[in-house]
Design brief:
4 helices
Length: 108
Amino acid sequence: MMSPDDFTRLVCMETARRQTQNHLRLIERQIALRTGRLAVTFRARSRHPGRNRSTWTSADERLYQDNLSALTFARQSEVDAVARKLIHQDAAIAAFRFRNGIVASLAA
């Protein structure tokens, strides 16, 4: 049986892990959204396509991929730091559960 203090610690650790995971997802969303804005802004949509034709060209796709690579590279150190923090939190939670004899599926 877990003491209330142990349970509180575990909840705090899992909450911190969820916040870190959300931060990582936020960074990834920011990169993707910024890349899309750059691609659309750079190539003004002055074309008048047909009814069912897409305005997204292969040049747009290349521009998008180039911007995605550049932005990902620019924020790579931040992504790596958050990912490392997430790995350490996972290890700490697993060690805490092991020490206290908690099965992961029941605590989650």
